[in-house]
Amino acid sequence: MLTISQVSEKTGLTPYTIRYYEKIGVLHEPERKNGGARVYKESEVSYIQCLNKLKKLGLSLEEITEFTHEGCVMDKIQQEENLSNYTPTIEKRMEILEKHLMGMVAKRQEIDDIISLTEEKLAQKS
């Protein structure tokens, strides 16, 4: 079991952010010690790292909440749960990721255009 400070160190998120994610429902509230201090399992740390990766992809907290609504589908598959129960969830996740992929491709094209323009300007000064 890990404290919120240890989880913060492992995930790169601040304790404030972790508590905020709990407050808005992106993250389930963890177990607590007798004194009320949060304690986290390694599986929860992995889940938080996954949330952090989704955030870095550019997903909004609303999209992350929707994306993770059914929890970790891969864990459910490993537990040999019936995949057909999660088809709508998987399709929604794919839709969210495809939308963001299209956005990232458009941003890459924009950056490539800026790089080309910059290279042209620099070549003119030589």
Short overview:
This protein is mainly α and 126 residues long. The protein is built from 6 helices and 2 strands.
Q: How is the secondary structure organized here?
A:
Elements: H1 4-11, H2 15-24, E1 31-32, E2 38-39, H3 42-56, H4 61-67, H5 73-78, H6 87-125
Antiparallel strand pairs: 1-2
What do these coordinates show?
This protein folds into 2 domains: 57 residues, Orthogonal Bundle (Multidrug-efflux Transporter Regulator, Chain: A, Domain 2); 57 residues, no CATH class. By secondary structure, the protein is mostly helical. The model has no long low-confidence stretch (mean pLDDT 85). It has a two-stranded antiparallel ribbon.
Key terms:
126 residues; Multidrug-efflux Transporter Regulator, Chain: A, Domain 2; two-stranded antiparallel sheet; 6 helices; 2 strands; flat; DNA-binding; MerR-type_HTH_dom; MerR family transcriptional regulator; MerR_fam; DNA-bd_dom_put_sf
Mean pLDDT rating = 85
- Uncertain segments are none
Backbone shape: flat
Quickly give the CATH architecture of the largest domain: Orthogonal Bundle
Instruction: Describe the main β-sheet briefly.
Output: 2 strands, antiparallel
- Would you report the number of β strands? 2
Return the domain count. 2
The fold-level CATH name of the largest domain is Multidrug-efflux Transporter Regulator, Chain: A, Domain 2
- Structural class based on helices, strands and sheet pairing: mainly alpha
